[in-house]
Fold:
Amino acid sequence: MNRVAFIYDDILTRHVLSNDHVFVPARLRYTYELLEFLGAFGLLNSTIHPPRSALLEELLSFHTKEYVEVVRFLSENDRSIDGTKYNFSFDGDNPIYKGMFESALLTTGASIVAAEELMQGRADIAVNFSGGLHHAMPNKASGFCIFDDPVIAINSLVANGLRVAYIDVDCHHGDGVQLAFDNTDQVITISLHESGEFLFPGTGFTNEIGEGSGTGYSVNIPLHPYTDDDTYLWAFDNIVPPIIESYKPDVLVTQLGIDTHVGDPITHLRLTVQGFTAIVKRLSTLSPGRWLALGGGGYNISAVIRGWSRAFGIMLENEWPNEINNPIADRYDIHFFDDPVQDSMPENIREEIKKYAERSVAKIQELVFPIHGL
Structure:
């Protein structure tokens, strides 16, 4: 039975980017509360571990020292620093708020703690749903992300001689992580996402396959808006399992953003919680025995709570019943894990969506598969 470590403290949920920001860290607390009511943390194979703050040397494995210092100064409300040079503002995607440095250190440190649990053999699966902030760049914030905790956690794994497969199922391309490992074959990055033709950050096309020794180790599966469960899972099944089987990683790292959900307010895919659950089940079969699971996007709070709770149940090998019958159900107005059956798209749009996925899959099979002997 999997030993599963859940990295959590309420302090990870308390910061507020701005009063009207779509990114709500408290969603992690809501997920924790549902899991607690479900009895997840009373199971023998489940443990909770507190986060710690990331150390400067850990941050510097990806970020510049100048940028780290800028984040600290801005967090202290030092107005002598021009935050716009580093993609910060007071009312944009990456708002300046008091204490953001300390919050970002804890979120990043939580992912490092999760990696340490795996490396030290205390867990088979380690989960930090506060993490997965995959857009942050070496010298700037991006897409609600200040420090790139997936990159920093993966760097700690690679420094210990481990080969890593990173699979990103967020609706947005995992551009910061791809950038970090674009020139190495020690990490393979696979990102399934709404195409950059239609959505931020405007990258993640099939011809982005890495450079130098990393050629063939960046894999991108762009999808058309309104892609549903069936087409998404078809694309996943045709690309991800064969590459992982060929690559044979020591550790699987996944970014489990659920902004692919049909009800998400800022994206355009049409996955249900059932579809997301099917993805997580597939990832569980791909794990080589060590699995670091991170959070990510998700701006429909009901979908986040249900999807991440379902995911944690799969990791525990203890799936929850569909009906949610506890105080959380009324508090957040969620009474079932499953979404209602979705209305079908018009046939001409369905055909366009499927053909787009088919072109993405065919291009990857042409450009990347031969490099891996497939």
Summary: The mean pLDDT is 97. The longest helix spans residues 347-367. Residues 4-372 form a domain with the Arginase; Chain A fold (CATH 3.40.800.20). The beta strands are 4-7, 46-49, 125-128, 164-168, 187-194, 218-223, 251-255, 291-294.
